[in-house]
């Protein structure tokens, strides 16, 4: 595909140019003829050709009109490949993907400037997927697989950890891309769970608890939760006591089970 135009920084265009890493990503995605695959941001097609060779069906969503047009041209005689010229954050994924009995696989070297909203989008559509293999900025990937108590542990760890088994698969240095990004990268695999890892009551409440707990990293858990407006100060104090959680702790020390226990109690208050 033409490399004539300069990559667009605004679209996070750091194209993969390392054949070894491309092979490893494809192996990690474990694609076969029975698979339906969504590639987000195929760009100049570093992963696309191999995905097209292996998958039964391939859907490409690319926001750069020129690159989407070039992909349409390249795959115009290939009915198994569909190119959507669109924004992954705006397309109606459920309508676009439709039924795939075994679930879609998602493979992407994500534009790092929108990786968090894309992760939350994929989380919201998790029932459509059987496996995700995503290239992320190293800090974002490490946050996802962090354990409670680590400095890296954060909102995405808890919210995605509720619904996915996540594994750090491949470390990718800047030299594997053109142009070279300023950061290191990692490939993380995600396998959706049939049920949430722990019962949380209302998921909306769980999200508010987790986001509230991390909203002000230097404040205590009790103050963060009060600030989140989920309940009165007295109610928050009573719920922390009932869950056996010290309100002086910081959000990043709470396990998923502890967040879930708080969420269940707070859900109870709101119903
Ligand atoms: N997959 C290619 C590779 O590995 O070389 C390109 C990866 S590059 C990091 C990210 C790609 O996502 C670019 O092609 C960019 O144009 C595309 N992109 C950026 N924002 C997007 C969006 N909102 N929706 C879909 N694609 C997007």
Report on this structure.
The protein is α/β, with parallel strands linked by helices. The protein has 2 domains: 9-192, Vaccinia Virus protein VP39 (Rossmann fold, 3-Layer(aba) Sandwich); 203-270, Orthogonal Bundle (Helicase, Ruva Protein, domain 3), CATH 1.10.8.100. It has 11 helices and 9 strands. It has helices at residues 19-29, 48-54, 65-74, 93-97, 115-124, 138-144, 155-161, 203-215, 221-227, 233-242, 256-270; strands at 15-16, 36-40, 57-62, 81-85, 104-109, 129-137, 164-172, 177-178, 185-192. The strands form 2 sheets. Strands 4-3-2-5-6-9-7 form a 7-stranded mixed beta sheet. A two-stranded antiparallel sheet has the order 1-8. The longest helix is centred in the last third of the chain and has 15 residues, at 256-270. 40% of the residues are buried. The mean pLDDT is 95. The structure holds S-adenosylmethionine.
What is the CATH C-level name of the largest domain? Alpha Beta
Percent of residues in helices? 25-40%
Topology pattern, helix = H, strand = E: EHEHEHEHEHEHHEEEHHHH
**Which structural class should the secondary elements be placed in?**
alpha/beta
Q: Return the domain count.
A: 2
Count of DSSP strands: 9
The CATH architecture name of the largest domain reads: 3-Layer(aba) Sandwich
Enumerate the distinct ligands: S-adenosylmethionine
> Over the alpha carbons, how many angstroms does the gyration radius reach?
20 Å
């Amino acid at each position: 595909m033409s490399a004539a135009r300069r990559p667009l920084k605004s679209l996070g265009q750091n194209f993969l140019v390392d054949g070894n890493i491309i092979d490893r990503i494809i192996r990690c995605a474990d694609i076969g003829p029975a698979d339906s695959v969504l590639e987000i941001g195929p760009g100049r097609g570093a992963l696309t050709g191999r995905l097209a060779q292996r998958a039964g069906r391939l859907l490409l969503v690319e926001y750069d009109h020129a690159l989407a047009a070039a992909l349409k041209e390249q795959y115009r005689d290939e009915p198994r490949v569909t190119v959507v010229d669109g924004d992954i954050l705006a397309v109606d994924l459920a309508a676009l993907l439709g039924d795939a009995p075994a679930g879609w696989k998602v493979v992407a070297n994500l534009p790092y400037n929108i990786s968090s909203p894309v992760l939350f989008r994929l989380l919201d559509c998790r029932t459509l997927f059987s496996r995700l293999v995503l290239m992320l900025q190293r800090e974002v990937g490490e946050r996802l697989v962090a354990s409670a108590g680590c400095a890296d542990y954060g909102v995405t760890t808890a919210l995605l950890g509720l619904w996915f088994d996540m594994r750090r698969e491949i470390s990718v240095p800047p030299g594997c891309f053109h142009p070279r990004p300023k950061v290191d990268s990692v490939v993380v695999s995600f396998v959706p769970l049939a049920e949430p890892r722990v019962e949380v009551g209302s998921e909306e409440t769980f999200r508010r608890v987790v986001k509230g707990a991390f909203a002000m990293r230097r404040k205590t858990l009790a103050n963060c939760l009060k600030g989140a407006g989920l309940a009165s100060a007295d109610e928050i104090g009573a719920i922390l006591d009932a869950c056996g959680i010290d309100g002086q702790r910081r959000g990043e020390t709470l396990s998923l089970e502890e967040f879930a226990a708080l969420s269940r109690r707070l859900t109870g208050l709101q119903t």
